[in-house]
Amino acid sequence: MGIVERKEREKEEMRRRIIDAAQHLYVQNGYEKLSIRAIADEIEYSPATIYLYFKDKSEVIYAVHQQAFAKLMNEFRAILIITDPFEKLIAMGKQYTHFAIENPELFDVMFIITAPMETLECREEIWSEGRIAFSMLVQVVQECISAGVFQPQDPEVAAMMIWSTIHGYTALFVRKRLNMFTDERRAELMQQAFTLFCNTLRKGL
Predict the structure, then answer these.
(1) Which CATH number fits domain 57-204: 3.40.50.1000, 1.10.357.10, 2.60.40.10, 1.20.140.10?
(2) Residue 191 has what pLDDT?
(3) Which residues, in sequence order, are CB contacts of 17 under 8 Å at separation 6+?
(4) What are the domain boundaries of the chain?
(5) Distance CA 116, CA 122 (A)
(6) Residues 19 and 64: beta-carbon distance below 8 Å
(7) Could you confirm whether domain 1-54 is CATH 1.10.10.60?
(8) What's the pLDDT at 5?
(9) From CA 25, how far away is CA 29, in angstroms rounded?
């Protein structure tokens, strides 16, 4: 390996260390307590080192958000081998909720807090991670339409309705807005709401 290649690898390794440290601190302490100095302390480097790779805290959290999306996309890709399009759609919905419950802090950075979107606005870029994930859902909805499971319609409109519904009750759970119920009742409501939604899709979309 040449000098240039080694330096590039070292830079990528340092960038990965910074992102991993930021994710660890974010999961532990939340966004408000995350700082460039805290990240630097975590990896035992000076804050100046962090600034060689990221402009500010928002850029770091955007990288954490990208890493979280990569994790979710890997889980979705494992579902794409399912041949029945409706069963594939149901599996994606289940995985979305499971991911959020298992990784609530990452779900927040992906879909709730505004910092990643503010970084995109500064760069004047579109939300490519969201677009890729949504396109995957649209493709599965189109497969359902082509198979006659759903009536002919705009697949993006149908996908938006499906996503917003599943995201809605998932966010209510993750953000503890269902804590007015007992643990047992919360689990029951989540499962039954999902089943009802699936049955509704099957009957009339």
Answers:
(1) 1.10.357.10
(2) 84
(3) 43
(4) 1-54, 57-204
(5) 10
(6) yes
(7) yes
(8) 79
(9) 6
Which of 131, 122, 133, 127 is closest to 59 using CA atoms? 122
Rounded to the nearest 5 degrees, what angle is found at the Cα of 32, between the Cα atoms of 28 and 36? Answer: 85
34, 25 Cβ separation under 8 angstroms: yes
Q: Which tokens in the block code for residue 8?
A: 């590039």
| Tokens 């000098």 sit on residue | 3
Model pTM? 0.87
Place of tokens 């009750």: 169
Q: What pLDDT shows up at residue 1?
A: 62
Cα separation, 24 vs 167, whole angstroms? 24
Q: What is the mean pLDDT of each run of 10 residues along the chain (205 residues)?
A: 77 92 90 92 92 91 93 92 93 93 92 87 85 94 94 94 92 91 89 86 77
As a whole number of angstroms, the distance between CA 101 and CA 107 comes to 8
Number of C-beta neighbours around residue 141 at 10 A:
27
Tokens found for residue 136: 């995957």
Tokens coding 182:
């007992």
How many residues are recorded in the chain? 205
Q: What are the residues whose beta carbons fall under 8 Å from the beta carbon of 66, sequence distance 6 or more?
A: 129
For residue 103, the Cα-to-chain-centroid distance in whole angstroms is: 9
pLDDT score recorded for residue 159 = 95
